[in-house]
Write a structure and sequence with these properties.
By secondary structure, this protein is of the alpha/beta class. The protein is built from three helices and four strands. The chain has a four-stranded parallel beta sheet, with helices on both faces. α1 links the parallel β1 and β2. The longest helix is centred in the N-terminal third of the chain and has 13 residues. It is globular. The model has no long low-confidence stretch (mean pLDDT about 90).
């Protein structure tokens, strides 16, 4: 049943990553909404009322870390759990 596990807002500038995350989360019973960057996330988060937000670290207009900071500063969104996601490999040298 869609939404049985909660609502997740997936924020990523990559359409492929958004779609992949949507499929995986929906298979686990989550209702999934998406945004293309941090600006779109902040513009729509109050109306969407997600239980969790995943944020890509590197996005145009407003990156994931700046978006997280703004979400935390807002009393209406400050308590929504956040998960930072990155497809960029980390140099382990």
């Amino acid at each position: 049943m869609p939404g049985a596990c909660g609502r997740v807002l997936v924020v990523d500038d990559s359409q492929v990553i958004r779609q992949l995350m949507r499929v995986v989360l929906e298979l686990d019973g989550f209702e999934v909404m998406t945004a293309t960057d941090g600006v779109a996330c902040l513009e729509n988060v109050r109306g969407l009322r997600p239980d969790l937000i995943t944020l890509d670290v590197a996005m145009p207009r407003l990156d994931g870390l700046s978006t997280a900071e703004r979400l935390r500063e807002d009393p209406d969104t400050g308590d929504i759990p956040l998960m930072l996601v990155s497809a960029t490999p980390v140099d382990q040298a």
